[in-house]
Amino acid sequence: MPVSDSFKDVTVLSRGGLFTNEDALVLAVNNPGAAIRMLNFEISQFGGYRRISGYAPYDSSNITVPGLGKTLGLWIHQNTVYAARRNVGDATGTLSTNPIAVVNESTTITITHSNHGLVVGSFVTFAGAAAVGGVTINGVEMVVLTVATNAYTVAFTTAGTSSVAAGGGASVTFSYSYNYSIYKHVAGVGWGSNVGPTGRSALNLSKLRTADHSFMGSPVHVVTDGINRPIRHSNTTFIEIFDRQGTTATDTEAQLSNAFDSSNGDATVTVDHVAHTLAVGDTVKYSGVGVNIGGVDINNTNFTVATVASADLYTFELSGTSSASSQTNVGGTGINFFYTKTTTIRDFVGAKYTTDFRNHQFFAGMAGNPNYLTFSSPNTDLNFVTGSGAGSINVGFTITGIAKFRDALYIFGAGKIKKLTGSSTSDFVISEVTNNIGCIASDSILEIGGDILFLASDGIRPIQGTARIGDVELETISKPIQQLLQALPATKDLANMCSVVIANKTQFRYFFPTASSADSEGIIGGIRFADQRAGWEFGQLLGIQATVAAGGLIDNQEVIIHGDETGRVFQQESGDDFNGADVISVYATPFLYFDSTERRKVFQHLSLFTRPEGASTINLGVAYDWDSPKVPNPLTYSLGTAGALLRYVTTGGTYNSTFTFDGSTSPVLETNIQGSGRSMSLVITSTGTQSPYSISGFSVTYQEYGYR
Known about the structure:
This protein is mainly beta. Among the domains are: 175 residues, Jelly Rolls; 87 residues, Elongation Factor Tu (Ef-tu), domain 3 (Beta Barrel), CATH 2.40.30.20; 81 residues, Elongation Factor Tu (Ef-tu), domain 3 (Beta Barrel), CATH 2.40.30.20. The protein has an 8-stranded antiparallel β-sheet with strand order 8-15-11-12-13-10-9-14, with no helix packed on it. Strands 22-29-25-26-27-24-23-28 form an 8-stranded antiparallel β-sheet, with no helix packed on it. Strands 1, 3, 4, 50, 53, 54 and 56 form a 7-stranded antiparallel β-sheet that branches.
């Protein structure tokens, strides 16, 4: 028999995704095209796996959002990108002479500043200070630890070497940071100035979250941050949401007109407001009041309703009796009012989560009301009056997220899930979904492929409309990487993770940022449609430091963006590298034993079926016998592509494009290989700033030898 007749070949299609907890023998038989390591690969839309695209600055001329610290919020609304970041210099000035006190061998520093107004958690930076007790505090941002009226303490990076009660000199300047701003990106201009409400605290703030709706007739985004009042904005106006308000802004109620009466020698102010709906103890605030009331400027000050004389009249008390002349029907014709009905509805200030459902706006995640859902009156997100159809519901556990799906609003706890059905206060019903499954990471909740996904303690689970638990499917979809996911609570900061959906790829990405972009990891998941079936596949990400991420349409094109720890905004699915840094990719196959775990094989040749998108170098490693140290492995093989033929470009191909007409005439990369063993695994890697490529599969030629 000719020698060639003793050769055998096996072709494997690359599909199945990452498996971290499958038995090695079973995996080789049932999923030979799966991966035991998959890094920075995604499901290729043309079959196999594709090395992911890079990311580049969203605006190369204006990469960084103005401010300090990380990007706090990021979203796309009406073809426009919005971003949030902590302010530079909410207060600035010069301190009194020698304001710094240092204690030997302590990192705690005391700063003297009369009536500084800071609170614990504020950020402070100094300049112009001379060395005190062996430390120089200039240019180092520090966090306030304790406060007194005229002094506060901070923690420095190093300890003092001697004690000094007062030092630093007469030229110590300060810059205090405690609020954040929202910026609108304008093409050709950049981020501009703050377009959102002012005075929004950034202290202890993790991130901004957004939800969009159009049940009021036009697209609107509602923004929560876990600290301040929620805000909503159209493409022109930002509004802080109160239980009721009347301003000149679209969708709010009409302003009051000459609504105030006061009397000389009395602290009581009477307010004329038809159908005010207030109760004793509610909070009221005004702006645009054109005169002092009772001798006091009442603008932008909170007052408590003292009495309710009728449906159209109520009173509040000034801090002292009026020494001014009595007043009747004063204040001007453009009085803005802001009401907080603390007596009849659970306050939604500090809400973390929001979504619309059945033409109501829902809020949850308030630190003071962690078990409560608060919802608006129907057909508005600016009225929270119980008599108009608003309300609050105690779900019985701390809420970690909310999401609407089909005809229900799902309410997640860390270990429970409930759902709300109905359309108004007259028929809203809370029912139990499960008592032993919950969401452990709020920002893992997303909608993709017609399902809601969330991260539970045992993996990624969907909410689907089938009858598995009641009428809801909750079966985990991430069993192949369950071992990886179960380690997340111990290895990752789930409170600071973020996620994004790439709709045109039916793909999601979970990001777990660290201080270093190179070390920031993530999970990538997508649906593969093959053999008339659809199934989830997963992989790992490395090198994308995303503190917040968002996706949306800009000029009818899907755009995926993320912000990082330094306030920069990047566009994903853009370019070949990670903002100039290398993209490290790894695809390691299972150990394939070709029908026998005991028979030795001599491997001769390998064909790698690829789809190059430009010039690239692929490194091929071969490992034998389940990584046995007793079996030598050959050196890595380097396989290169000259470029991609234009016929592989789906859109945008031009004569002068970067795709070469004289590229590889065949997407098959071939090499002879050396070595023998009972099993083999291919380790396909690339490092650098080269173009993405896809791997559709591979073919191995070998000869069988005897047992030994």
